[in-house]
Amino acid sequence: MTLTNGNGTGDLSSGWANDTSINIDFKFTDSNPNYTPQGRIKCLNGQSTDSGMDEEGSGNLCFFTSQGTGGSGSGTLSEVMRMTYDNLVGIGITNPGYKLDVSGDINCTGSFRVNNTALSTVATSGAYADLSGIPDLSSYSTFSGSYTDLTSKPTLFSGSYTDLTSKPTLFSGSYTDLTSKPTLFSGSYTDLTNLPSASGGEWTTSSASTVTSDIHHSDSGSQSGSSYTSGSLVTITGSMGPGGIGDKMGLLAEHSNRTQAIGIGYNTIAQVGATDNAQLVLKSKGTSLVYIGNNIATPLVVSQTSVYINGNLGAGVSSPSARLHVYEATGTTHGANKGTIIIDHNNTGGASSIVFRSKVNRSSDYGYIQYQDASSVGGSGESARMIVGTANDSDDNVILAPSGRVGISNYSPADKFHVTGNILASGNITAYYSDIRLKTINEYVKNVLSTLDKISVFKYKCNDLAVSFGYDNSKNEIGLSAQEIKKYYPELIDLAPFDSIFDSKLGKKVSKSGDEYLTLNYERLVPILLQGIKELNANNKAIEEKNKVLDGKYNSLEKELQEIKKYLGK
Question: What is the tens place of the pLDDT at every residue in 543-557?
Fold first, then answer.
């Protein structure tokens, strides 16, 4: 890995002159830019006094962490580990002299191994002046007990030892030798004296484009076009794909078993693990929100319990023209498990609804469309209702009941159209049929005048019982008695609508109260009245004929009277 710096300040402008170090700082996004970084990786040039080297092209790699001091954002970066140009590693020490040089205690929950052989528990103590040599443990598997001198000491370490009376435990297990040095770097580089080319194929600190990056990688020698003008900490360019399955990824984060993996291409983040059906999850932390949008706006906001859309939502259409725009190339008919929009409720006797709220009295004034399982919410039985209504005016609701029955202000319509209240129509109301081709005549209605003469016509007001059923007794009415009409023409009598309910078992309407309150079909009384008119007309014609005969007789008598008077000389 090659990191190139022009002036040691993070500016990747040019050259090696006066190079001292390159820093990669790690800051959380919510940190003040002036705060001390939480972590740092520093590469020291061989000419730096801090590097311990004078050789051009050599360098140390240092790792720092920071302990903050609260809200002030100040803190101190402390070096934790250093990797030197000659393959030495120091922990807590800036000038390691060995492959691993640690300043402090080491705790190992497993075993130390030399040439694949575990070293048993070893106890040693005292001061060590030098550990630069390679210990030879070929004839020792473990060490224990107390040593007062090391006149005839095993060849564990080179250097001199004065005392090991109080000895620390350095190793456990069994080591045979350490003649084979561990490899600090994998690949073709054991040191950094042979720097890879900055033109491509490796990590560098200089982008091939005109915009510099703190870290840049490309798998090709050149790039075209203009890079992101504001620069970046890390840039990956080259022959990657958009980011779908089968594309070469720019960045891959995968599980150790590789069943799940997140790949990032140049315009896609995808789940590309070996598992056929693997999740891709985007999460925030705690009560914070997840925002999804573009460089202009973030119309989709997700919280713990809701999804907020600041704009139009399209289903099947990429440019919705309404808050909710559903497009189907081929429409969907209704079914138990299909529809353009499906709204479920999962409680017996429950209801689902769509509510339209007003700006005025929003808490109480609204319209709605509601589907419920029974005639009342929480009820039982298969008597579902579709209700179109308004709050505060429940008597204005329209109810679509089973068997195609519609109620206006009536939740249990007894017939195809059942209205509780008056009906006003500016046009005609056409009902039933009168075509003679559809009728088989049983008998003709005759002699209605005598019957009509027995029926009383009267003025009335609703009594208290009628008022209890919702009728208004503030005005006078003119009407007939259904009971009187029923004696002569029972075909004109039906159950009063307010006392009617549809019995699904019987398949007909019945008295809701059981008292069989009646009403008269006044329009069916018209044929009776027409027959009465015809009978009156016939009577008038008979009288007219009689009058003609009487007129003839009168005229004849008048003539005779005139002749008699004339004969008598008067």
Answer: 999 999 999 999 999
Q: What token pair was written down for 147?
A: 């040593």
User: For position 144, what pLDDT does the model report?
Assistant: 45
Vertex 360 angle, CA 355 and 363, to 5° = 55
By CB atoms closer than 10 A (0-12, 13-18, 19+), residue 569 is exposed
What is d(CA 101, CA 90) in angstroms, rounded to the nearest whole number?
A: 5
How far is residue 329 from each of residues 317, 318, 324, 484, measured CA to CA in Å?
A: 10, 13, 17, 63
DSSP element (H, E) containing 552: helix 522-568
- Fill in the amino acid letter for 135: P
Q: From edge to edge, which strands make up the β-sheet containing 300-302?
A: 290-292, 300-302, 307-309
The residue type at 31: S
The DSSP result for 262-311, as a single string, is EEE-SS-EEE-SSSSS-------STT--EEE--SS---EEE-SS-EEESS
Q: Is the separation of the CB atoms in 240 and 250 below 8 Å?
A: yes
Q: Which domains does the chain have, with CATH numbers?
A: 113-177 (no CATH), 351-419 (no CATH), 443-570 (1.10.10)
Rounded distance between C-alpha atoms, residue 310 and residue 290, angstroms: 14
Residue 234 CA to its chain's centroid (Å): 34
pLDDT of residue 384: 87
Q: Minimal CA–CA distance to 529: which of 437, 445, 418?
A: 445
Angle at 512 between CA 508 and CA 518, to 5 degrees: 85
Q: SS3 of 469, please? A: coil
Over pLDDT 70: what percentage of the chain? 74
Q: What DSSP string describes 24-42?
A: EEE--TTS-TTSPPSEEEE
